[in-house]
Design goal:
156 residues; alpha+beta; 5-stranded antiparallel β-sheet; 5 helices; 53% helix; coiled coil; signal
């Protein structure tokens, strides 16, 4: 009886051992394939991040106006990156209803805002927007408290 049991046990071990090795190899192959996908995706993210940095203005990378206004505690809410190109700006962000854009001071839209004219918002027919305040290359739009407007104008 012991010999039969031992024979069955050894047969079972030999029969299933190669399949266990195959399953382990398959699992290792799947893990390696997934790791390669993760590595490829990370490379794509890194490439896109470096491309994005080319399009950010120096001021967007280190926005001194924004830092100044945050330190003055006149911006509140969540920061939202704006589609600055819709108003002809280089970059823009928003806190609450106050929007701040950086312009190329030689652009047509900037010159129109400086002259007191409203500019059209690209892609929205019949919608125009005016500047609340202008400080160098920065333009404040939307709705803002008097404290925010004052701090914006005081920025140097």
């Amino acid at each position: 009886m012991k010999k039969k049991f031992l024979a069955i046990l050894l047969t079972t071990i030999f029969v299933f051992s190669p399949s266990v090795a195959v399953f382990a190899d398959t699992k290792d192959d799947k893990i390696a394939a997934l790791q390669k996908q993760v590595d490829d995706l990370q490379k794509q993210v890194d490439d896109l991040t470096s491309k994005l940095k080319k399009y950010q203005s120096d001021d967007t990378k280190n926005n001194n106006m924004e830092d100044y206004l945050l330190k003055k505690n006149v911006l509140s809410g969540k920061r939202i990156e704006m589609a600055a190109d819709m108003v002809g700006a280089i970059s823009g962000f928003k806190y609450g209803d106050a929007e701040i854009y950086e312009y190329d001071m030689s652009s047509t839209q900037y010159k129109e805002l400086v002259s007191g004219d409203a500019i059209s918002v690209e892609g929205i027919d019949g919608y125009t927007i005016n500047a609340l305040a202008i400080n160098g290359k920065y333009v404040l739009m939307g709705e803002a408290s008097e404290d925010l407007i004052q701090a914006f104008n005081d920025y140097k």
